[in-house]
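Predict structure. Chain length: 72.
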Amino acid sequence: MLNEVPDRYNRMQEEIDRLEEEGRIYVIRPDKHVTVQRTEKDKRKLEALYGDGRRLAEEHMGKLKKYLEIEE
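Prediction complete.
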């Protein structure tokens, strides 16, 4: 069971890539390597990751609205 996790993760990533290519989903991915762990306690690292996420969301907002067919 636990040894199946990497394979399940890879299949999910492949499915996300396929759906994105088909235009069925819009994906916003980090543009830098994420070094924050799931159990991260370093507030500075968490705030930096949050800031990166907000920046990316703002950068993608126009394309995302177009994808969702939302008028600006």
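Summary: DSSP finds two helices and no strands in the chain.
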